Amino acid sequence: MNFEIQKRALSTLIREDLDAVVVLWPAPDDQLTASLDPISALVKTATQHGDFDHKPGTTLSLYAHPGVKTRHLVIVSVADGKPAKVRTALLAAWSVLKSFKVKRLGVHAAFDVSTQALQMAATTLADASYSYTSTLSQPKPRTLKHVVFSMARVSAEQRGAVAHVQALVSGIEVAKEWANRPANHATPSMLAEAAKSIAKGASFKCEVMGPKEVTKLGMGAFLAVARGSDEPLRFIVMRYNGAPASQAPVVLVGKGITFDTGGISIKPAAEMDEMKFDMCGAASVLGVFKALAELKPALNVVGLIPATENMPDGLAVKPGDVVTSMSGQTIEILNTDAEGRLVLCDALTYAERFKPKAVIDIATLTGACVIALGGVRSGLFSSDDALAQSIQSAGEASGDTCWRMPLDDDYAEGLKSRFADVANVAGRQAGSVTAAKFLQRFASKYPWAHLDIAGTAWRSGAAKGATGRPVALLLQYLLSQVGGAAAKTRVANRR
Ligand code: BES
Ligand code: MN
Ligand code: ZN
Fold it and tell me: Which residue lies with its CA nearest to atom 3 of ligand 1?
């Protein structure tokens, strides 16, 4: 999908060769209605008859209107024009337009749009028009290819925001694609191939390790999870070097369980198919790297993906087995369904070698996080207040929000074991926190944060599918490390 921004009056936009135009109508609109162009006049009449108001998402649609070249014109209320309202408005407008095979869409803002609202507009349209095609014999690919944003004034910041969002949407769509693919079309080896093809080019490196190398590294916890599967594990190490080597990197660690049956502690059958999404953390790392490849910011970033299936088998790890992690700590695996923390703990130890500025792991880690926060905010856990603060702010700025959860040591009580240094599960209470407490034991050498995306990475039910979260949050966080300048650099380079 392509995004463009133009300084333009509505009167010229509606004479362009576009399949549809959406006009974001703000409140208050006194100035607009006073100007009495044909559209303002129309809105005024509709308002007088009670057929249009300022409730965000209220639409007024015109078809083949005289003086308007575009056949479909939808006027939609955005109230104060804040990102959340823009989202509501565009979802409403898109539900009017979606059956018309719109290829080129104009979105006109009759007000000063913030860069955040612009980003929200683009990601909302990309998400609403998305169509999964990979494993369908007669796929219906998305028709929407091109979006032209227009407004009376366009700032350099807004232009930068469009360049940023262009890369962001590519990243989100990579994440959605890999997350949505069924587990037999997204094996650890296939994820590794995807990583290699994304991390191509001058500033990138990608190394893929298999069972032999991982054994040599002593990743006993990761290996324990992979034992039950015939699909060989992969440990993917992606590197993006956009800054001098002296600059400490940010390391992103994505949980890459390509299918989670629970192992010997097997899950119930209902909705088990959704456990193909248990690699959404990994998919978000792939998505971030895709965006980095487009934006080329002055940053160093490492992506680590421990990828494996979690399967029951004659050779599978059993409840009560004790394994030795790469850190040397022994772990009593009381529940083989708490496998995410086992693959992550070894990747967190591996991360030490990069002497990172910060390490963020991203994981569909616990059902308990879904209960705590639902599908609205991801769970954020961090031992470092400054890091937590910047991640939280990146969430607010991108609209891909999270909420900080506690890490008091008292929560770790239940992880005590008589047979190993630590158990991989505690009781039922505060399950997302005890999981984070487990991870924290392996992340003591650097500032660390953990995002539990079990509730936010995909939607269930009729609209089942990956959301591409938290690519937007992560990219926002990374670019904030270079003062958000990355997007501007790219725009300048293109001229
Ligand atoms: N991948 C699941 C977490 C999950 C469950 C995400 C449901 C989204 C929806 C994870 O591996 C898991 O099974 N966690 C267990 C941990 C428990 C055994 C301590 C869980 O949450 O039930
Ligand atoms: Mn599990
Ligand atoms: Zn899992």
Answer: 366
